[in-house]
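Subject: two folds for Thursday's group meeting

Dear M.,

Sorry for the delay on this. The cluster queue was jammed most of the week, so I only got both jobs back this morning. I'm pasting them in the order they finished. Each block is the input sequence followed by the predicted structure tokens. Could you check whether the formatting survives your parser before we put anything on slides? The first protein is the one we discussed after the seminar.
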Amino acid sequence: MAMTLAGRVSEELHFDTVTTGASDDFNKVTRMATAMVTQWGMSPKLRYLYYDSDKQNQLQKPFSEQTAREIDIEVQRIVDQAYKQCKDLLVEKKKEIGIIAEELLAKEVLGRDDMIRLLGKRPFDDPESFSQYFSGSRGDREGPGADLPLPQPQKEGDNPLAPPGSPAPTVFKGEQQ
């Protein structure tokens, strides 16, 4: 959510006025925060309650006005927290953002090598950190593990995560597993 707000926060930090360009970002952030509160149980205040939404993403109202106010307060708190996190990070990294902005004005497109040249190596070792969590197979197929074959689909009924003796999943006609 903080990343989604970065464009607007950057405008606020670097320009005298802001544009309407971030309206879709606000929509996404608000929808996500609302789902966190009303559907995913991620509000310490409302906790384990689930409030369904209709097709227009309007909350059905099987709850009181007080609960509606609490939902609004929680959604605002989550969005404010993401905004603050984003702003703090952009202020902290202002120098680096300026370096990248200048280079983008000159080149229009930057690659990984450009980022390393401008900002230096990451503070962690890329290949080892990645492989520690993703078995050495990189999503972009670069670096260690790039020459390894991609995982192949499993045979029907072969599910290493299923408990022993559990039935094979149902495969419908025309569907591949």
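Second protein, same layout:
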Amino acid sequence: MKPIAALAMISIWLAGLAGCATVSPQAADQRPFFQPEYARANHGRKTWFDRLFELDPSEINVKVAPEYTANPPAKVAVLPFTDQGSAQFIVDKVPLTFRDKKERAQWAWTDSQRLRRYMQGYLAGREFLVENLTVIDTVLSAHGIKDGKDLAAVPPQQLGQWLGVDAVMYGTVLHYESYYAFLIAGQQVSIEGRIVSTHDGATLVSYDASRERTNLMPAIDPLDMVLNSAQTLLDLRDIQIARSEDEACREIVIRIPASKHLNEQLVHEASDMMAAQSSDLPLQPPPVADPPAPPHS
């Protein structure tokens, strides 16, 4: 089989695996909202094959306490994350920058905020109500919270009163660095933290995650070594570290079990809102169960 023909066949096969995403003229029908979603609980979750294929030895650990299942928090505030790293640009454990104290503080805040925003975004895509980060920071600043030590000194119950939330999320950035060895390059982003109830101070969810993205370019002759070394060096782009940030947070949030209780509570709130508008429309929660996996098209 000629290479072009083989490539064409592979492209057609991959298009079929995509779930028939292309729209044909016959498919221009009216499709109702509020349908069950395929793979809602595991879309985007890495499998062992993904980790093997991407040379990612990292792992994700999320522990959910019984208190969470019995009484999950409806509204969550993602508190400022702390950064335990050096706040220098590090490659192979060697800092390549010489930032002063002010610059290190700014970079530590930058790294932690990047992960914090990803975490907030994925939580907001769930059944939780997530407080705005600007509101959180404004309230904390008004109460004299300047750093992680000040934040740790405030009981979760007090934070709940200040922010009007049911739980707060703490986070700590452990690693935020790159490595490069000519034919191999990658980034490591590691984070740990917990979600704590603001009603009794109990830890509802604890988590730690590490994303180690690795790009290996084997070579069999000197010219390949030069070209592949240059290509792996280009792999240390900002977009790649952003993908590692995103993936670490996504893998954490996707492991927090969905709560039908929270969905029902939100429906009741919507019903109360409609009643206040003198409407007697019957409200039912949208379906949350995953339907059977569809056959490949």
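Two things I noticed about the second structure. The first strand starts at residue 60 and ends at 64. The chain has one domain: 47-259.

Cheers,
T.
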